[in-house]
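A.,

Following up on our hallway conversation. C-alpha cells first:
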C-alpha cells in the first residue's frame, strides 16, 4: 500500500481559540465554522456518547461518569468498577449498545487493578438506570496484567451485529509481548456483547493463540471507527514520530515493534520501516501529532466534509481532517482548536463534538456558519 507522509507544513491555519472568547469563528478550507463550549469543569474527559433524550454521557479519566444537559454536569453516576487511576489509566471510553433504546446497555473501558500494583485494560457492560449503573459485568480483561501506567489503548467500537472491537496497547514497556498471539498485549480484540470471542475471529482454530485477537502488532491504539461499509479503521501512537492510521483487518500484523517510522525517545533506531509480512500504514505522521479520538464524517451538515476522517490531536491541539480517496489519504487539513483534543464524535444532527484533555476540560461543539 502506498505510504503518504505529510508534514506540519500542511497546517491550514493557526487561529487561537480560548474559552473566554466564545463562540469562536474560524475559516477552514471547506467551511466557516463556529466553535461553542457546551460544558466546562471536567477532569480530563476521555469518552463521549449521545443519549437518545439529548443528554450527553461523558467519562472523566480520574473516575467519574456524568450526564451533561443544558451545559450542566450531573453528580457522578454510581456503580463504576474499581479503577487503577494514574498516568494514562483510569476511566476511558463509553459507548451505547446498538439496542440502547430498548435495553439501556452501555459499555465502559477502563484500567482494571490487579494484584501487586498491576493493571490492564478491561471492559464492563452495564445497564444505565438513572443516577447509577446496574447489572454490571466485566466482559473482557486484558491479560497479562503489568505494573505500568501507560499505553492502555481503550477505544470501543460496536459493529452492526453487536460485536465489539476493543483496542489495546503494549503497556509502554512490554514490546516483547506484542507479537506473540499468546497475550492481549498490543492487540485489537473482537468479542461478543457478552464477552466471548467471536466465532469467526482469525485465530479461533489456532491452539496457541488467544481466540479474541482480531489483529496484532500495535503500539497504543487510541482511535477507532467504522467506515460506511463497516470496516474498522484505527490509529495508534508511534514512539517519537510514526503515529499511523490503518484499515485494521482480521489476522494481519501491523508490525510494532519490528517496523515503525518513529524512533526511540531522545533518538535511536527501532527496527526497520518495512519488512515482509508486516502491514504498511495507510498514513503516518512525522513528527507525531499524538492522535486521539477519530470518526468518519457521514452527515449532510458539513457538505464539504463528506466521508472525511476526523482525528483529534493531543500534541498540537488540532482537529485533523483527512480526505480519503481509494483508501488513501489524498489531502490533510489541520484545524487549530488550541486545547488538547481527546475525543471526536459526530452528533446525529451532524455537528462535531470534541473533548479537551485538561484539568478543567471542556466539551466543544462545531457547526458550520449559515
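Then the amino acids I'd put at each of the 370 positions:
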Amino acid at each position: 500500500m502506498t505510504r503518504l507522509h505529510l508534514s506540519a507544513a500542511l497546517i491550514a491555519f493557526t487561529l487561537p481559540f480560548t474559552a473566554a472568547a466564545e463562540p469562536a469563528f474560524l475559516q477552514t478550507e471547506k467551511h466557516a465554522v463556529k466553535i461553542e463550549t457546551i460544558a466546562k469543569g471536567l477532569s480530563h474527559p476521555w469518552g463521549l456518547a449521545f443519549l437518545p433524550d439529548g443528554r450527553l454521557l461523558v467519562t472523566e479519566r480520574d473516575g467519574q461518569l456524568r450526564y451533561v444537559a443544558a451545559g450542566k454536569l450531573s453528580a457522578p453516576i454510581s456503580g463504576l468498577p474499581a479503577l487503577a487511576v494514574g498516568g494514562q489509566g483510569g476511566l476511558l471510553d463509553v459507548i451505547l449498545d446498538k439496542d440502547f433504546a430498548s435495553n439501556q446497555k452501555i459499555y465502559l473501558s477502563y484500567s482494571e487493578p490487579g494484584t501487586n500494583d498491576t493493571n490492564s485494560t478491561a471492559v464492563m457492560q452495564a445497564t444505565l438506570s438513572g443516577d447509577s449503573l446496574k447489572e454490571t459485568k466485566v466482559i473482557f480483561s486484558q491479560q497479562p496484567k503489568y505494573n505500568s501506567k501507560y499505553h492502555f489503548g481503550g477505544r470501543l467500537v460496536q459493529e452492526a451485529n453487536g460485536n465489539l472491537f476493543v483496542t489495546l496497547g503494549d503497556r509502554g514497556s512490554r514490546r516483547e509481548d506484542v507479537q506473540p498471539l499468546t497475550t492481549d498485549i498490543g492487540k485489537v480484540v473482537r468479542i461478543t456483547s457478552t464477552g466471548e470471542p467471536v466465532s469467526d475471529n482469525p485465530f479461533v482454530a489456532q491452539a496457541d493463540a488467544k481466540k479474541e485477537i482480531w489483529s496484532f502488532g500495535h503500539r497504543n491504539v487510541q482511535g477507532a471507527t467504522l467506515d460506511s461499509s463497516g470496516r474498522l479503521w484505527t490509529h495508534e501512537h508511534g514512539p517519537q514520530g510514526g503515529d499511523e492510521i490503518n484499515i485494521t483487518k482480521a489476522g494481519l500484523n501491523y508490525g510494532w515493534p519490528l517496523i515503525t517510522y518513529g524512533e526511540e525517545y531522545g533518538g535511536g533506531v527501532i527496527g526497520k520501516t518495512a519488512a515482509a509480512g508486516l502491514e504498511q500504514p495507510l498514513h503516518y505522521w512525522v513528527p507525531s501529532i499524538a492522535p486521539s479520538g477519530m470518526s468518519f464524517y457521514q452527515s449532510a451538515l458539513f457538505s464539504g466534509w463528506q466521508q472525511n476522517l476526523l482525528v483529534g490531536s493531543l500534541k498540537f491541539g488540532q482537529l485533523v481532517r483527512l480526505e480519503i480517496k481509494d483508501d488513501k489519504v489524498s489531502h490533510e487539513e489541520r484545524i487549530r482548536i488550541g486545547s488538547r483534543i481527546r475525543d471526536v464524535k459526530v452528533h446525529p444532527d451532524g455537528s462535531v463534538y470534541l473533548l479537551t484533555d485538561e484539568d478543567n476540560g471542556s466539551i466543544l461543539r462545531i457547526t458550520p456558519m449559515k
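Residues 100-103 form the longest helix (4 residues). Curious whether your intuition agrees with the design.

B.
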